[in-house]
Specification:
This protein is an alpha+beta fold and 227 residues long. It has helices spanning 56-61, 89-95, 120-123, 196-205, 207-220; strands spanning 17-18, 41-46, 49-55, 65-72, 77-88, 105-110, 115-119, 129-134, 137-138, 148-150, 163-169.
Length: 227
């Protein structure tokens, strides 16, 4: 498990430590990734009503390009210099006629029915990307295939793996117990109610066992259908 212990390094945001590789990581590491179709399909909804669908072909038509970014997990590990290939989310929205906020909040939904909340201005920042590739290779089950929302300025739990839907909401959505609505790395918004200094050490101590269990679960549960 020591391979998953991050080290001190210069140039990282407050409280972060450098990891040599990007492990599979989850707050439910004992659960395998959801079985997903090979091609992306993103539903866009407004208070539950379907308003658009983006397919893999639609995203390809928007000319995906490489976006270099660091990744910062809320538990204090970071990986630097990742290359995500994809389309900025705001460009994807514009392609279906969404240029102004239909509502101030968004909820992203995953293939295993988990949800993550955003404010419009955070989700449509210039650096937020709908990614299909990582470091030149198609996303795999470990890192969120077939489509991942990548938000480098927010902690990793906002970079939603296995993305299947985005729903605009007029009212501020309820967030998970440990999820900060904004989760900005620069100001250490790690937890919705607790100060960063209080959660940093407990979070860091959980890195090796969490990554170890998550990777072992991935190896033990192979997909039963083509992905």
């Amino acid at each position: 498990m020591m391979r998953y212990w991050p080290r001190r390094a210069d140039g990282l945001p407050p409280g972060q430590r450098l990891m040599n590789e990007m492990p599979r990581f989850s707050d439910l590491p004992h659960l395998p990734p959801p079985e997903m179709p090979a091609e992306p399909r993103l539903e866009i909804r407004n208070d539950g009503d379907l308003i658009a669908v983006l397919t893999g072909a639609d995203l390809q038509a928007l000319k995906p390009r490489d976006h270099r970014a660091d990744f910062h997990c809320v538990t204090t590990w970071s990986v630097t210099g990742l290359i995500w290939t994809g389309v900025p989310l705001r460009e994807a929205f514009a392609s279906v006629g969404i240029t102004d906020a239909p509502a101030p909040y968004l909820v992203a939904r995953t293939g295993d029915r988990r949800t993550v909340a955003f404010r419009w201005e955070d989700a449509t920042a210039e650096t937020v990307v709908l990614a299909t590739h990582l470091n030149g290779a198609p996303l795999d089950r470990r890192h969120g295939a077939p489509l991942r929302l990548v938000s480098p300025s927010q902690y990793g739990y906002k970079s939603v793996k296995h993305l299947v839907a985005i729903d605009f909401r007029a009212e501020e959505p309820r967030v998970r117990s440990k999820e900060h609505l904004r989760a900005r790395v620069s100001v250490e918004e790690r937890h919705p109610t607790l100060p960063s200094w209080l959660v940093t050490l407990p979070y860091r101590l959980m890195i090796p066992p969490t990554a170890y269990v998550a990777e072992r679960t991935l190896r033990r549960h192979r997909p039963t259908s083509s992905q």
